Amino acid sequence: MSQGRADQPVEDVTSKLDTTVPHSARVWNYWLGGKDNFAQDRAVGDQVRAVFPEIVEAAQYSRAFLRRAVTYLAAEAGIRQFLDVGTGLPTADNTHQVAQEITPQARIVYIDNDPMVLAHARVLLTSSQEGATQYVDADLRDPEKIVQDARGTLDFTEPIALMMLGVMGHVEDPADARAIVGALVSTLPSGSFLAMSDGTATSERVIESHRQYNKSGAVPYHLREVADFTAFFDGLELVEPGVVPLGHWRPDNRPTAVVDGYCGVARKP
b/e for 64-95, b at 16 or more Cβ within 10 A? Predict the structure, then answer.
Protein backbone atom coordinates (compact mmCIF):
# COMPACT_ATOMS: atom_id res chain seq x y z
CA MET A 1 0.00 0.00 0.00
CA SER A 2 1.44 3.32 -1.05
CA GLN A 3 0.98 6.08 1.48
CA GLY A 4 2.09 9.61 2.13
CA ARG A 5 2.97 10.99 5.53
CA ALA A 6 1.12 13.46 7.73
CA ASP A 7 3.26 16.35 8.97
CA GLN A 8 2.53 15.84 12.68
CA PRO A 9 1.69 12.91 14.97
CA VAL A 10 -2.06 12.50 15.42
CA GLU A 11 -1.81 13.06 19.18
CA ASP A 12 -0.12 16.44 18.60
CA VAL A 13 -2.84 17.48 16.21
CA THR A 14 -5.85 16.45 18.29
CA SER A 15 -4.52 18.52 21.18
CA LYS A 16 -5.16 21.60 19.03
CA LEU A 17 -8.84 20.86 18.57
CA ASP A 18 -11.19 23.52 19.93
CA THR A 19 -14.55 21.84 20.28
CA THR A 20 -16.21 25.02 21.58
CA VAL A 21 -15.92 26.77 18.20
CA PRO A 22 -17.80 25.40 15.18
CA HIS A 23 -15.75 24.49 12.13
CA SER A 24 -16.99 24.36 8.55
CA ALA A 25 -15.50 20.91 7.86
CA ARG A 26 -17.28 19.44 10.88
CA VAL A 27 -20.57 21.26 10.18
CA TRP A 28 -20.42 19.96 6.59
CA ASN A 29 -19.73 16.49 7.97
CA TYR A 30 -22.85 16.81 10.14
CA TRP A 31 -25.02 17.81 7.16
CA LEU A 32 -23.73 14.80 5.26
CA GLY A 33 -24.74 12.49 8.10
CA GLY A 34 -21.22 11.94 9.44
CA LYS A 35 -20.17 11.47 13.06
CA ASP A 36 -16.99 13.58 13.12
CA ASN A 37 -18.51 16.67 14.71
CA PHE A 38 -19.22 18.21 18.10
CA ALA A 39 -22.17 19.84 19.87
CA GLN A 40 -21.29 23.35 18.65
CA ASP A 41 -21.00 22.12 15.07
CA ARG A 42 -24.40 20.45 15.28
CA ALA A 43 -25.98 23.51 16.90
CA VAL A 44 -24.79 25.79 14.10
CA GLY A 45 -25.73 23.21 11.49
CA ASP A 46 -29.26 23.05 12.88
CA GLN A 47 -29.46 26.85 13.03
CA VAL A 48 -28.50 27.20 9.38
CA ARG A 49 -30.81 24.36 8.36
CA ALA A 50 -33.74 26.03 10.14
CA VAL A 51 -33.35 29.07 7.89
CA PHE A 52 -32.25 27.20 4.77
CA PRO A 53 -33.36 23.54 4.87
CA GLU A 54 -31.93 22.94 1.39
CA ILE A 55 -28.39 23.19 2.79
CA VAL A 56 -28.40 19.43 3.39
CA GLU A 57 -29.44 18.82 -0.22
CA ALA A 58 -26.75 21.27 -1.37
CA ALA A 59 -24.14 19.32 0.62
CA GLN A 60 -25.28 16.09 -0.99
CA TYR A 61 -25.23 17.64 -4.48
CA SER A 62 -21.73 18.96 -3.85
CA ARG A 63 -20.54 15.47 -2.96
CA ALA A 64 -22.25 14.08 -6.04
CA PHE A 65 -20.44 16.69 -8.15
CA LEU A 66 -17.12 15.46 -6.75
CA ARG A 67 -17.96 11.92 -7.85
CA ARG A 68 -19.06 12.99 -11.31
CA ALA A 69 -16.18 15.39 -11.88
CA VAL A 70 -13.51 12.91 -10.77
CA THR A 71 -15.16 10.18 -12.84
CA TYR A 72 -15.08 12.41 -15.91
CA LEU A 73 -11.48 13.47 -15.28
CA ALA A 74 -10.18 9.94 -14.71
CA ALA A 75 -12.32 7.99 -17.19
CA GLU A 76 -12.77 10.46 -20.06
CA ALA A 77 -10.01 13.07 -19.75
CA GLY A 78 -7.31 10.57 -18.80
CA ILE A 79 -6.16 12.46 -15.70
CA ARG A 80 -3.97 10.45 -13.34
CA GLN A 81 -3.05 13.15 -10.80
CA PHE A 82 -5.32 15.12 -8.46
CA LEU A 83 -4.59 18.07 -6.15
CA ASP A 84 -7.56 18.36 -3.78
CA VAL A 85 -7.46 21.68 -1.87
CA GLY A 86 -9.78 22.03 1.11
CA THR A 87 -10.33 18.32 1.54
CA GLY A 88 -12.60 18.39 4.57
CA LEU A 89 -13.38 15.33 6.63
CA PRO A 90 -13.45 11.95 4.89
CA THR A 91 -16.84 10.55 3.98
CA ALA A 92 -17.81 8.11 1.25
CA ASP A 93 -16.38 8.56 -2.24
CA ASN A 94 -13.32 10.65 -1.48
CA THR A 95 -11.29 11.82 -4.48
CA HIS A 96 -8.73 9.02 -4.25
CA GLN A 97 -11.40 6.34 -3.93
CA VAL A 98 -13.30 7.49 -7.02
CA ALA A 99 -10.14 8.04 -9.08
CA GLN A 100 -8.36 4.83 -8.11
CA GLU A 101 -11.45 2.73 -8.74
CA ILE A 102 -11.15 3.87 -12.37
CA THR A 103 -7.37 4.06 -12.60
CA PRO A 104 -5.54 2.37 -9.71
CA GLN A 105 -2.28 4.19 -10.50
CA ALA A 106 -3.82 7.60 -9.79
CA ARG A 107 -1.87 9.87 -7.43
CA ILE A 108 -3.71 12.24 -5.09
CA VAL A 109 -2.55 15.01 -2.77
CA TYR A 110 -5.03 16.32 -0.21
CA ILE A 111 -4.65 19.82 1.26
CA ASP A 112 -6.30 21.02 4.47
CA ASN A 113 -5.35 22.80 7.69
CA ASP A 114 -8.00 21.56 10.12
CA PRO A 115 -6.64 19.55 13.08
CA MET A 116 -9.46 17.01 12.94
CA VAL A 117 -8.88 16.44 9.23
CA LEU A 118 -5.21 15.88 9.96
CA ALA A 119 -6.17 13.43 12.70
CA HIS A 120 -8.01 11.47 10.01
CA ALA A 121 -5.03 11.60 7.66
CA ARG A 122 -4.41 7.88 8.04
CA VAL A 123 -7.83 7.27 6.51
CA LEU A 124 -7.25 9.78 3.74
CA LEU A 125 -3.83 8.38 2.96
CA THR A 126 -5.08 4.89 2.19
CA SER A 127 -4.19 4.21 -1.41
CA SER A 128 -4.24 1.49 -4.01
CA GLN A 129 -1.01 -0.44 -4.29
CA GLU A 130 -0.33 1.03 -7.72
CA GLY A 131 -1.12 4.65 -6.83
CA ALA A 132 -0.28 7.08 -4.05
CA THR A 133 -1.94 9.57 -1.72
CA GLN A 134 -0.44 12.27 0.46
CA TYR A 135 -1.90 14.67 2.99
CA VAL A 136 -0.42 18.18 3.24
CA ASP A 137 -1.15 20.43 6.21
CA ALA A 138 -1.33 23.82 4.51
CA ASP A 139 -3.58 26.85 4.11
CA LEU A 140 -5.28 27.52 0.78
CA ARG A 141 -3.93 31.10 0.98
CA ASP A 142 -0.39 29.76 0.57
CA PRO A 143 -0.23 28.42 -3.00
CA GLU A 144 3.56 28.29 -2.95
CA LYS A 145 3.65 25.88 0.00
CA ILE A 146 0.84 23.79 -1.48
CA VAL A 147 2.71 23.31 -4.74
CA GLN A 148 6.08 22.81 -3.07
CA ASP A 149 4.77 20.04 -0.82
CA ALA A 150 2.62 18.46 -3.54
CA ARG A 151 5.68 18.02 -5.78
CA GLY A 152 6.73 15.15 -3.54
CA THR A 153 3.86 13.08 -4.96
CA LEU A 154 2.71 14.79 -8.16
CA ASP A 155 4.63 15.35 -11.39
CA PHE A 156 3.99 18.96 -12.44
CA THR A 157 5.16 18.24 -15.98
CA GLU A 158 2.09 16.03 -16.49
CA PRO A 159 -1.60 17.11 -16.37
CA ILE A 160 -3.13 17.54 -12.91
CA ALA A 161 -6.74 18.06 -11.85
CA LEU A 162 -7.02 20.86 -9.29
CA MET A 163 -10.09 20.24 -7.10
CA MET A 164 -11.40 23.22 -5.09
CA LEU A 165 -14.83 22.23 -3.87
CA GLY A 166 -16.69 24.44 -1.42
CA VAL A 167 -13.53 26.10 -0.17
CA MET A 168 -12.97 29.49 -1.80
CA GLY A 169 -15.84 31.07 0.12
CA HIS A 170 -13.39 31.27 3.02
CA VAL A 171 -11.63 34.07 1.13
CA GLU A 172 -13.81 37.17 1.33
CA ASP A 173 -12.47 39.40 -1.43
CA PRO A 174 -13.29 38.08 -4.93
CA ALA A 175 -10.05 39.48 -6.35
CA ASP A 176 -7.97 37.76 -3.65
CA ALA A 177 -9.81 34.51 -4.28
CA ARG A 178 -9.19 34.71 -8.03
CA ALA A 179 -5.51 35.45 -7.36
CA ILE A 180 -5.15 32.31 -5.22
CA VAL A 181 -6.84 30.09 -7.80
CA GLY A 182 -4.85 31.74 -10.59
CA ALA A 183 -1.57 31.16 -8.76
CA LEU A 184 -2.33 27.45 -8.41
CA VAL A 185 -3.55 27.06 -11.99
CA SER A 186 -0.43 28.86 -13.28
CA THR A 187 1.76 26.05 -11.89
CA LEU A 188 -0.15 23.37 -13.81
CA PRO A 189 0.89 22.22 -17.29
CA SER A 190 -1.29 22.42 -20.38
CA GLY A 191 -3.99 19.76 -20.36
CA SER A 192 -4.65 20.14 -16.64
CA PHE A 193 -8.13 20.83 -15.26
CA LEU A 194 -9.80 22.99 -12.62
CA ALA A 195 -12.92 21.61 -10.91
CA MET A 196 -14.71 24.00 -8.57
CA SER A 197 -17.93 24.41 -6.63
CA ASP A 198 -19.09 27.03 -4.12
CA GLY A 199 -22.12 28.51 -2.48
CA THR A 200 -23.72 31.41 -4.32
CA ALA A 201 -25.78 34.38 -3.16
CA THR A 202 -28.77 33.39 -5.24
CA SER A 203 -31.59 33.55 -2.67
CA GLU A 204 -32.44 35.61 0.40
CA ARG A 205 -32.67 32.50 2.55
CA VAL A 206 -29.18 31.29 1.76
CA ILE A 207 -27.81 34.79 2.36
CA GLU A 208 -29.52 34.93 5.77
CA SER A 209 -28.39 31.42 6.69
CA HIS A 210 -24.76 32.32 6.00
CA ARG A 211 -25.09 35.58 7.88
CA GLN A 212 -26.09 33.57 10.94
CA TYR A 213 -23.34 31.03 10.32
CA ASN A 214 -20.72 33.78 10.13
CA LYS A 215 -21.91 35.15 13.49
CA SER A 216 -21.39 31.76 15.16
CA GLY A 217 -17.65 32.15 15.67
CA ALA A 218 -16.72 29.76 12.89
CA VAL A 219 -14.32 30.82 10.15
CA PRO A 220 -16.61 32.95 7.94
CA TYR A 221 -17.85 31.66 4.61
CA HIS A 222 -18.63 34.27 1.96
CA LEU A 223 -21.16 33.55 -0.75
CA ARG A 224 -20.25 34.56 -4.30
CA GLU A 225 -22.29 36.12 -7.03
CA VAL A 226 -22.57 33.69 -9.94
CA ALA A 227 -20.51 36.06 -12.13
CA ASP A 228 -17.71 36.10 -9.55
CA PHE A 229 -17.73 32.31 -9.38
CA THR A 230 -17.68 32.02 -13.17
CA ALA A 231 -14.65 34.33 -13.27
CA PHE A 232 -12.52 31.62 -11.65
CA PHE A 233 -12.54 29.87 -15.03
CA ASP A 234 -11.35 32.87 -17.07
CA GLY A 235 -8.73 31.77 -19.61
CA LEU A 236 -9.73 28.12 -19.34
CA GLU A 237 -11.87 25.94 -21.62
CA LEU A 238 -15.11 25.03 -19.87
CA VAL A 239 -16.26 21.43 -20.18
CA GLU A 240 -19.93 20.99 -21.09
CA PRO A 241 -22.38 21.86 -19.60
CA GLY A 242 -20.29 24.81 -18.35
CA VAL A 243 -20.94 26.63 -15.07
CA VAL A 244 -24.24 25.32 -13.73
CA PRO A 245 -26.09 24.91 -10.40
CA LEU A 246 -24.99 22.04 -8.18
CA GLY A 247 -26.78 18.90 -9.23
CA HIS A 248 -26.94 20.00 -12.87
CA TRP A 249 -23.40 19.04 -13.93
CA ARG A 250 -23.84 15.83 -15.96
CA PRO A 251 -26.53 14.54 -13.60
CA ASP A 252 -27.99 11.09 -13.41
CA ASN A 253 -31.34 10.56 -15.09
CA ARG A 254 -33.30 11.54 -12.00
CA PRO A 255 -34.46 15.17 -11.82
CA THR A 256 -32.51 17.55 -9.59
CA ALA A 257 -33.65 20.63 -7.72
CA VAL A 258 -31.89 23.98 -8.06
CA VAL A 259 -29.89 24.86 -4.95
CA ASP A 260 -27.80 27.91 -4.05
CA GLY A 261 -24.44 26.72 -5.31
CA TYR A 262 -22.67 26.48 -8.66
CA CYS A 263 -19.98 24.24 -10.10
CA GLY A 264 -17.89 23.71 -13.20
CA VAL A 265 -14.91 21.93 -14.74
CA ALA A 266 -12.48 23.56 -17.19
CA ARG A 267 -9.33 22.57 -19.07
CA LYS A 268 -6.13 24.59 -19.18
CA PRO A 269 -5.16 25.13 -22.84
Answer: bbbebbbbbbbeebebbbbbbbbbbbbeeebb
Cβ-proximal residues to 66 (8 Å cutoff; 6+ apart), any chain? 93, 95, 98, 163, 165
pLDDT > 70: percent of the chain: 88
Residue 2 in this model has a pLDDT that exceeds 50: no
Check: CB of residue 88 under 8 Å from CB of residue 117: yes
CA angle 52, 141, 217 (to 5 degrees): 40
Report the predicted TM-score, pTM, of the whole model to 2 decimal places. Answer: 0.84
Residue that wins the pLDDT comparison between 200 and 206: 200
Q: Give the residue from 69, 89, 106 showing the smallest Cα distance to 195.
A: 69
CA distances from 62 to 69, 131, 195, 262 (A): 10, 25, 12, 9
Q: Closest Cα to residue 177, out of 187, 191, 188, 167?
A: 167
Q: Could you read off the pLDDT of 123-145 as tens digits, one per residue?
A: 666 788 999 999 889 999 999 99
Residue whose C-alpha is closest to residue 176's, from 143, 147, 200, 146: 143
In angstroms, what CA-CA distances link 15 with 9, 19, 119, 120, 135? Answer: 10, 11, 10, 14, 19
Residues 183, 135: Cα–Cα separation, whole Å: 20
- Tell me the CA distances in angstroms from 161 to 125, 131, 189, one per residue in order: 18, 15, 10
DSSP code, position 49 = H
What are the C-alpha distances in Å from 170 to residues 37, 89, 113, 176, 192?
A: 19, 16, 13, 11, 24
Q: Residue 123: what pLDDT?
A: 67
Query: At residue 265, does pLDDT exceed 50?
Result: yes
The answer on pLDDT for 29 being more than 60 is yes
